[in-house]
């Protein structure tokens, strides 16, 4: 079992945040981690495990962790990229567009683990996501792509490239532009971005985010893993 501090999340959640990595049903260790967290004033502990590990899930429940989300990870081969829909301009963000994209990010996310945990204030979850988007647009993302219609930003796709290969980190389409093929254009652009640089592209989304799961399946992604996220949170 390993505990990794999460200073970025702590900035928005009102106290220290830990990420717990565990691969065994160590009830005693979970209880000890919670006791240590209480003594230090930790606000939140998150733990993500394979969905099939009901033994670990049971041990987490004993330690007062709550199930928050089911995360689905999809992957597609980059040997045959989806076709770019016509009439939609997608390309790297420029400085003057960052504010527009951040505004979309602030209001677009509702099923991620921060919004799904009702103990986290909505404004804190929105602010966290907005900063996450801004950080991606200002250099964290390897591929900071935005979609434009009529000269206005209507969506973004921020891809990062950790050691295991490129990942769609955050993607969103403005509410008024949904249903126009913007999401497919953003995914297609990311695939073309990495052709010749990687063999596959991955993305994770919540099982109850039906729009996203439909988008990825329709653009050639296949499900490769299913995980469950748990939170322990200190009383306010």
Major beta sheet summary: 10 strands, mixed
Q: Count the strands?
A: 10
Structural class: alpha+beta
* Overall shape: globular
Rg, Cα atoms, Å: 19 Å
CATH architecture of the largest domain: 3-Layer(aba) Sandwich
CATH level 1 class label of the largest domain: Alpha Beta
Structure, explained:
- The protein folds into two domains: 2-71 and 229-233, Aminopeptidase (3-Layer(aba) Sandwich), CATH 3.40.630; 75-226, 3-Layer(aba) Sandwich (Aminopeptidase).
- It has helices at residues 7-13, 27-40, 54-62, 98-108, 113-116, 122-140, 182-194, 210-218, and strands at 2-5, 17-21, 44-50, 66-77, 89-92, 143-149, 152-160, 167-173, 200-206, 222-233.
- The chain is built from eight helices and ten strands.
- Helix content is 36%, strand content 31%.
- A ten-stranded mixed beta sheet has the order 1-2-3-10-4-9-8-7-6-5, with helices on both faces.
- Strand 8, helix 7 and strand 9 form a beta-alpha-beta unit.
- The longest helix has 19 residues, at 122-140.
- The chain is an alpha+beta fold and 236 residues long.
- The radius of gyration is 19 Å and the shape is globular.
């Amino acid at each position: 079992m390993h505990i990794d501090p999460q200073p970025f999340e702590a900035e928005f959640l009102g106290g220290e945040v830990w990420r717990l990595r565990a691969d065994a049903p160590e009830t005693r260790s979970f209880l000890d981690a919670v006791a240590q967290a209480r003594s230090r004033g930790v606000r939140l502990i998150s733990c993500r495990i394979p969905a099939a590990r009901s033994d670990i899930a049971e041990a987490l429940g004993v330690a007062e962790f709550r199930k928050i989300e089911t995360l689905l990870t999809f992957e597609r081969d980059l040997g045959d990229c989806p076709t770019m829909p016509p009439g939609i301009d997608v390309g790297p963000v420029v400085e003057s567009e960052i504010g527009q994209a951040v505004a979309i990010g602030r209001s677009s996310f509702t099923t991620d683990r921060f919004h799904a945990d009702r103990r986290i204030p909505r404004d804190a979850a929105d602010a966290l996501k907005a900063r996450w988007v801004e950080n991606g647009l200002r250099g964290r993302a390897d591929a900071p792509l935005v979609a434009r219609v009529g000269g206005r930003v209507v969506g973004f796709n921020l891809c990062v490239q950790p050691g295991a290969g490129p990942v769609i980190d955050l993607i969103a389409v403005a509410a008024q532009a949904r249903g126009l093929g913007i999401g497919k254009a953003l995914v297609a652009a990311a695939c073309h971005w990495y052709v010749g640089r990687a063999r596959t592209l991955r993305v994770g989304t919540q099982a109850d985010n039906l729009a996203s799961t439909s988008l990825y399946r329709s653009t050639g992604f296949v499900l490769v893993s299913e995980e469950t996220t748990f939170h322990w949170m200190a009383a306010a």
